[in-house]
Amino acid sequence: MAVPPSPRLPGGISAVFPAYNDAATIPSMVLTAILALRQVTDDYEVIVTNDGSSDQTGPVLDELAQRIPELHVIHHPQNRGYGMALRSGFAAARKDWIFYTDGDAQYDPMELITLVENLKDGVDVVNGYKISRGDSLLRVIVGRLYHHTVRLAFGFKLRDVDCDFRLIRRELFKRIPLKSETGAICLEMVKKFQDAGAVFVEVPVHHYPRPHGASQFFHPRHIFNTLCTLAGLWQELVLKK
Predict the structure, then answer these.
(1) What is the pLDDT of residue 109?
(2) Which of 9, 78, 88, 227 has the fewest CB atoms within 10 Å, measured from its CB?
(3) Are 179 and 188 in contact (CB under 8 A)?
(4) Is 1 among the domain residues?
(5) What CA–CA distance (Å, rounded) separates 156 from 159?
(6) Does residue 26 form part of some domain?
(7) E strand intervals along 69-147
(8) Is it the case that residue 28 has pLDDT exceeding 70?
(9) Measured over all CA atoms, what is the biggest interatomic distance in the chain, rounded to whole angstroms?
(10) What are residue 25's phi and psi, to 5 degrees?
C-alpha cells in the first residue's frame, strides 16, 4: 500500500529552538527538524537561540550553521532566561508560520508533520498536548499542580498550557507583544492569544525523558522569578480586566 504524501503548507515555516547547555542534543534536533520541514514546505528556516550556554552549544551551532544555510544562530552572551530565548527567536523569524519546541530532545520534531496535518482554514495555533509526561514523578506532580492552578487562575481552555510544541501564525506576534523572560512566557502567550480571539486546535504529541543534562526548573532563582512573573501576569491579564 502506498504511503500518503505528507501535507504541504502554503507559506513557509520558521522552526525556533531555545538552547541552554544542549550541545549533546541540539544537532539532532536541528537535523530532524529539517527532515520534517522538507516534508511539509519548500520554504523554511531554523533559528536557534544559544542562551548563554556554558558547554559547547555555541561552537556546535556555529559549526552546523557553516554547513546548513537554512540555520541561523543567535547568541546571548549571558543566560537571559527561557522567555528571552524564545522572544529572540520569534523576533528573528521571517516565515508565515512559527514552529517552536525545546532543544533538549524531550519532543520529536518529526511530529511537526502532525501539527501541519491539523492546520485547517481559520486556525491560528496548533497546540500540542502531552500524551504522557516523560519526567520524574515529582516533576509530573508539580506539572499537574501548575497546570490546574494557572488554568483556574487565568481561565484557560486548553488541556495542556505548558506543552512547548506549537505551530503559530506569525501575524499573532506582530499584534500581541510578549514580555516574559522566564518559562511563564508559555502561559502569557496562550492567554494573550486566547483573549485576542485566536483559533486553537489541540493535537496529542509524545514527551520523552530528558536524555542529557539537568532541567533548570527547580533552581530557587528560577522558581522565584517565575512566581513573580506569574503574579504580574495575573494582575495584568486577569485582575485589571
Answers:
(1) 98
(2) 78
(3) yes
(4) no
(5) 8
(6) yes
(7) 71-76, 97-101, 125-130
(8) yes
(9) 57
(10) -120, -25
Higher pLDDT, 139 or 5: 139
Could you list the residue range(s) of the whole structural domain that residue 185 is in?
13-239
Residue 224 is assigned to a structural domain of this protein: yes
Cα distances (Å, whole numbers) of residue 77 to 100, 182, 205, 235: 22, 17, 33, 32
Distance CA 210, CA 228 (A): 27
Rounded Cα distance between 176 and 56, Å, is 34
Mean pLDDT score, 112-118? 97
Gap between the Cα atoms of 119 and 112, Å rounded: 11
Q: How many domains does the chain have?
A: 1
Block residue for cell numbers 552572551: 77
* C-alpha cell recorded at residue 211: 536524555
pLDDT in tens, 51-90: 999 999 999 999 999 999 999 999 999 999 999 999 999 9
Report pLDDT for 3.
46
Whether 2 has a pLDDT exceeding 50, the answer reads no
Amino acid occupying residue 73: V
CA triplet 125, 128, 131: central angle to 5 degrees? Answer: 160
Please give the Cα distance from 10 to 32 (Å, whole number).
21
196 and 176 in contact (C-beta within 8 Å)?
A: yes
Query: What CA–CA distances, in Å, run from 29 to 48, 102, 104, 229?
Result: 10, 9, 8, 29
